[in-house]
């Protein structure tokens, strides 16, 4: 009886069976708003950090929506939004050539250097 | 270098064996899978389905409590409830965001919800009959949701885990405001106390059902556990919820509607009676009191306002410089 | 991070309040404000004025709340929620101030002793005791009309609050100082929608214009001072609404023109209606929705 239930997702039991009645689906013509990525500076002195995304018709409305969604508990003092389509990212195919060269440069890290325990402020 | 977008999925590479090994190794090391990593199609599909129905649940979940927004009996309660219902919209959005990193599209997921091709948690198909329901939803339904959600903060999929951390932090006030409302009502009039008990009677069993069927009848669980999408069995989480809730009910002065509820002194767990799954089955098969109404409201929000969405797009196109 | 730790951290009480969410630094706008009524100010006038401003905020919040679960796009759902919460916050401060200076009318005898003044006033006054204007009481209409109304109402209110920051009543001044930031954002947000709908598609233009035409007549009685406002304005406590007429007209005209919308003829000033307790049928329905449950249980506390 209960095998066509599952408990995925935080709010628990949802049906998985296909027998749930399906209403006819009139297609609604609309132009979807583009996806924006949102970056918030939590407080002065910190970097902007990626917090998530949203949909907005344009840049101005994206800033408003970001303010209303991602800073409604005083989480930020500054917001950047950028269209997801405008971001250039490293490709996973190029992962090795992009990031492997820095993997062996251990001399860039402070722990590479042995300093005697009794030397202060180092 | 190509110009892929941030956190959008990449196409699968021909050298799948090495990629699969890399994926398995990442999961085995309890590291996070990130959007542009290669992942098995089953993993992606399972995640999209799970995250989408979680998002749908948040959005549909606004309605049972939202029905009391206009009539909230004090201005403080009205502000609390509005902030809470608003959070649920926000949580839905965080989750749709996570689903979109897997290549899903929010408008498409919304269409699937409205066309009933994707589901949401059945708990929200029960009506909220009195204001005590607002308190009990906070205490029991959100309490159960927290039990389900906290382990998801460690989900193997990075964006989902990050969304869940934010959601769990924000939800912590949801349960407390509900319990506080119930405490206040229990100190109030006889009519208020009766309302609280009645709401507990109606919501207790559906809350237990939120954890899903017993593990041995939960066919999808094993793969989800192996992938680190799911961290605990349904029965374990359900037991954890019962153990938490019983002392809270005692402190509140309400009776949980289960004559079989007894403390197993040896194990330290509360044993509870058999769950009537046929009742849940009835609700989720579309005979729940509010199924049609919940979906109709989402459909109206989409269709009646389509002109607004279109207008903003048209304006943006005109003024793009 | 082990989940039991996360779980404990989430469910157990904690002395660090900031722990509950990411944000911190929530301020009490009235912290350290002197609440005594300034010399020469009639507390009854001050209370009546607080009711006017408070009722407008309460009623508009109630109207906006009707959009929750029905708004276009989830982003707007959240934006409307924020605006509603801001206005609700303003209403609570203003009604509490009215109560603290003794203006409770019939409400206090109806509400049980443990009900705070703000709730006695919100839930236990009758329609004729409310002092909100027809502008905020009118039905929402479609999203276009709702945004036009929000734009007009927040333009008027912002102009008033900006001046109230200098009120001789320190409480009003503090409430206004907090409110102007909120209202500036509401006005900005609504104005952006007016631009987008007015200059969007032919359908949105038609709807936005219909919204303007529906909202416009409510401007008539906004700029005529009641006796209470005149007396308080003379004493440096309140704002004479006639003083903000030109500024409001300017802002509305600028935005509507940019939105390619026709600016209707400015209505002739009319005697105040809502401010003196006159109201249409919308107010009765609105208050039934607001007050029904609280009045069913007059002895209850929530």
From TrEMBL, chain A:
Pfam families: PaaB. Residues 1-30 are annotated as: Disordered. InterPro entries: PaaB (IPR009359), PaaB_sf (IPR038693). NCBIfam families: PA_CoA_Oxy2. This is Ring-1,2-phenylacetyl-CoA epoxidase subunit PaaB. It comes from Geodermatophilus amargosae.
TrEMBL record, chain B:
It comes from the Bacteria. Gene3D superfamilies: 1.20.1260.10. One of its GO terms (cellular component) is cytosol. GO terms for molecular function: phenylacetyl-CoA 1,2-epoxidase activity. One of its GO terms (biological process) is phenylacetate catabolic process. This is Ring-1,2-phenylacetyl-CoA epoxidase subunit PaaA. It comes from Geodermatophilus amargosae.
UniProtKB/TrEMBL annotation, chain C:
Residues 265-302 are annotated as: Disordered. Pfam families: PaaA_PaaC (PF05138). One of its GO terms (biological process) is phenylacetate catabolic process. GO terms for cellular component: cytosol. SUPFAM superfamilies: Ferritin-like. This is Ring-1,2-phenylacetyl-CoA epoxidase subunit PaaC. It comes from Geodermatophilus amargosae.
């Amino acid at each position: 009886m209960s095998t066509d239930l599952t408990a995925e997702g935080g709010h628990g039991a949802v049906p998985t069976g296909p027998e749930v009645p399906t209403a006819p689906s009139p297609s609604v013509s609309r132009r979807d708003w583009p996806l924006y990525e949102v970056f918030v500076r939590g407080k002065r002195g910190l970097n902007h950090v990626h917090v998530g995304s949203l949909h907005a018709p344009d840049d101005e409305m994206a800033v408003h929506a970001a303010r209303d969604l991602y800073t409604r508990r005083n989480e930020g003092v500054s917001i950047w939004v950028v269209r997801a389509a405008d971001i250039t990212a490293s490709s996973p195919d190029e992962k090795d050539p992009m990031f492997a060269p820095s993997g062996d440069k251990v001399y860039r890290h402070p722990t590479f250097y042995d300093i005697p325990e009794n030397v202060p402020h180092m | 270098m190509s110009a892929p977008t941030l956190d959008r999925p990449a196409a699968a590479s021909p050298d799948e064996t090495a990629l699969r090994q890399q994926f398995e190794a990442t999961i085995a090391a309890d590291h996070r899978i990130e959007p542009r990593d290669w992942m098995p199609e089953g993993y992606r599909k399972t995640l999209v389905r799970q995250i989408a129905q979680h998002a749908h649940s948040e959005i549909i979940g606004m309605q049972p409590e939202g029905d009391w927004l206009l009539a909230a009996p004090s201005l403080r309660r009205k502000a609390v409830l509005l902030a809470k219902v608003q959070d649920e919209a926000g949580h839905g959005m965080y989750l749709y965001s996570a689903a979109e990193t897997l290549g899903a599209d929010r408008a498409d997921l919304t269409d699937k919800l409205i066309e009933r091709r994707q589901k949401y948690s059945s708990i929200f198909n029960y009506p909220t009959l009195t204001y005590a329901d607002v308190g009990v939803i906070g205490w029991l339904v959100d309490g159960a949701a927290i039990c389900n959600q906290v382990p998801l903060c460690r989900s193997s999929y990075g964006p989902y885990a990050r969304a869940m951390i934010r959601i769990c932090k924000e939800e912590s006030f949801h349960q407390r405001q509900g319990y506080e409302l119930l405490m206040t009502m229990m100190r109030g009039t006889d009519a208020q106390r009766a309302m609280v008990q009645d709401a507990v009677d109606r919501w207790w069993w559906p809350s237990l059902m939120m954890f899903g069927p017993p593990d041995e009848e939960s066919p999808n669980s094993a793969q989800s556990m192996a992938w680190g999408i799911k961290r605990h069995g349904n029965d374990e989480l359900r037991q954890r919820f019962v153990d938490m809730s019983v002392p809270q009910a005692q402190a509140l002065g309400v009776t949980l509607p289960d004559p079989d509820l007894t403390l197993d002194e040896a194990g330290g767990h509360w044993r509870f009676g058999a769950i009537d799954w046929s009742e849940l089955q009835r609700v989720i098969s579309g005979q729940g009191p509010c199924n049609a109404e919940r979906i109709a409201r989402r459909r109206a929000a989409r269709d009646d306002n389509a002109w607004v969405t279109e207008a903003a797009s048209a304006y943006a196109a005109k003024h793009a410089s | 991070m082990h989940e039991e730790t996360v779980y404990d951290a989430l469910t157990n009480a904690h002395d660090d309040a900031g722990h509950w969410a990411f944000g911190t630094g929530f301020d009490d706008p009235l912290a350290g404000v002197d609440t005594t009524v300034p010399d020469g100010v009639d507390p009854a006038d001050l209370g009546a004025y607080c009711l006017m401003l408070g009722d407008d905020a309460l009623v508009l919040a109630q109207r906006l709340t009707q959009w929750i679960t029905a708004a276009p796009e989830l982003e707007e759902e959240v934006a409307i929620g924020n605006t509603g919460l801001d206005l609700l916050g303003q209403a609570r401060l203003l009604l509490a101030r009215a109560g603290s200076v003794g203006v409770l009318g019939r409400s206090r005898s109806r509400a049980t002793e443990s009900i705070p003044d703000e709730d006695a006033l919100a839930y236990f006054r009758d329609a004729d005791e409310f002092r909100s204007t027809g502008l905020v009481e009118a039905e929402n209409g479609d999203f276009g009309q709702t945004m036009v109304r929000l734009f007009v109402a927040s333009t008027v209110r912002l102009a008033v609050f900006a001046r109230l920051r200098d009120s001789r009543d320190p409480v009003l001044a503090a409430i206004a100082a907090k409110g102007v930031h909120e209202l500036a954002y509401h006005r900005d947000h609504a104005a952006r929608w007016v631009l987008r709908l007015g200059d969007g598609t032919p359908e949105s233009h038609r709807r936005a214009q219909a919204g303007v035409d529906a909202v416009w007549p409510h401007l008539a009685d906004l700029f005529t001072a009641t006796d209470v406002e005149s007396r308080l304005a003379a004493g440096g406590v309140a704002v004479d609404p006639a003083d903000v007429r030109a500024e409001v007209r300017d802002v509305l005209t600028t935005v509507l023109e940019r939105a390619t919308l026709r600016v209707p003829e400015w209505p002739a000033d009319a005697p105040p209606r809502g401010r003196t307790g006159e109201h249409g049928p919308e107010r009765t329905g609105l208050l039934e929705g607001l007050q029904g449950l609280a009045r069913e249980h007059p002895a209850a506390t929530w």
